[in-house]
From TrEMBL:
Reaction(s) catalysed by this chain's protein: (R)-pantothenate + ATP = (R)-4'-phosphopantothenate + ADP + H(+)
Gene this chain is encoded by: coaX
Keyword Calcium in record: no
Assembly mode: Homodimer.
Annotated EC: 2.7.1.33
Protein name: Type III pantothenate kinase
Cofactor: how bound: A monovalent cation. Ammonium or potassium.
Pfam families recorded: Pan_kinase
Length: 279
């Protein structure tokens, strides 16, 4: 079995992948601040022959996790943001400072669709761009839905946006605090994504395929106007591409990769931008 780990600021996600059949056998998540110790919610390391890790938590969390895993697992691979990988050139002035989850997402997106706009809706919402030739432009970082809500301190943090709610309903002015906050932060997030996507495509003269990942991807998806795919395993896809271990991975296959819809034409994107400027 291969254990893939995505250590975020809030949640540490894991999945167990069968190295022979490429099937995902199980998955789960634990709070990052509780740190990563084999126990109730964590898979049995006896069956694990390799671990791949993407971590944006404090360095100490990663060190402890790696030390613990090395005692029981022979192969431990830790992803790093590098100046170049898999045909993508990192756009950061200091490439090592790009969050490795963003780098994994950009690599996965590029491997799947060529140039892309990779959006990760977690503690933060990150929006990264890779051009068809593999140039990563950099990206945008916005507070995530939960962070925005918490920062308001209006006692609404525990009432989540219903993932089933229609984005039209979220457009209505709230008539209670919880609705005003939920509708407000939702609009802040999706308006930012829609606008940023259009601006960058306009600047670069290319319509890019869009993919979304992260804990809030499903709800954010409802407000993203352009064609896009939701890819819960996008960060894991970057791990598979960076450290291919199975036959399928060596052939470039990332498990759970979605079909990515064709982007709308650049003309349409530009018309949409021009229209919003007139208002
Ligand atoms: N069971 C859950 N526990 C916590 N957050 C959840 C859960 N389900 C959905 N969410 C939402 O997912 C978001 C966290 O997503 P994700 O797991 O991608 O974040 P993360 O691990 O903190 O990511 P990051 O890498 O940005 O730190 C929160 O903002 C929250 O609104
Ligand atoms: C932005 C987050 C928190 C998103 O998980 C992570 O990618 C990170 O800590 N990045 C480092 C800063 C940067 O990417 O510029
Ligand atoms: K994340």
């Amino acid at each position: 079995m291969i254990l893939d780990l995505d250590i975020g600021n809030t949640l540490s996600k894991w999945r167990l992948k069968d190295a022979d059949s490429s099937e995902i056998r199980s998955r789960g998540a634990v709070w990052t601040r509780e740190e990563w110790r084999p126990g109730a919610d964590i898979p049995d390391l006896d069956v694990v022959e390799a671990v791949r890790i993407s971590s944006v938590a404090r360095a100490a969390v990663l060190e402890e996790t790696v030390a613990l895993l090395r005692r029981q697992v022979r192969q431990v691979y830790v992803a790093r943001s590098t100046p170049e990988a898999l045909g993508v050139v990192n756009g950061y002035e200091e490439p090592g400072r790009l969050g490795v989850d963003r780098w994994m997402g950009a690599l996965a997106g590029y491997q799947l669709a060529g140039g892309c706009c990779a959006v990760d809706c977690g503690s933060a919402i990150t929006i990264d761009f890779v051009l068809p030739g593999g140039v990563h432009l950099g990206g945008f970082i916005v507070p995530g839905l939960r962070l925005m809500k918490e920062s308001l301190k209006l006692g609404t943090r525990n009432v989540a946006i219903d993932p089933e709610s229609e984005s039209d309903a979220l457009l209505e002015p709230g008539r209670r605090t919880v609705d005003a906050v939920n509708h407000g932060i939702y609009m802040a997030a999706v308006s930012a994504i829609n606008r940023i996507y259009s601006e960058v495509c306009d600047q670069q003269g290319v319509a890019l395929p869009v993919m979304l990942t992260g804990g809030d991807a499903r709800v954010v998806s409802r407000g993203v106007q352009v064609p896009h795919a939701v890819w819960p395993d996008m960060v894991y896809g970057g791990l598979e591409a960076s450290f291919p271990l199975t036959f399928a991975e060596r052939a470039g296959k990332m498990s759970g990769a979605p079909r990515v819809p064709e982007p709308v034409s650049l003309e349409k994107i530009r018309a949409g931008l021009a229209f919003s400027m007139l208002l």
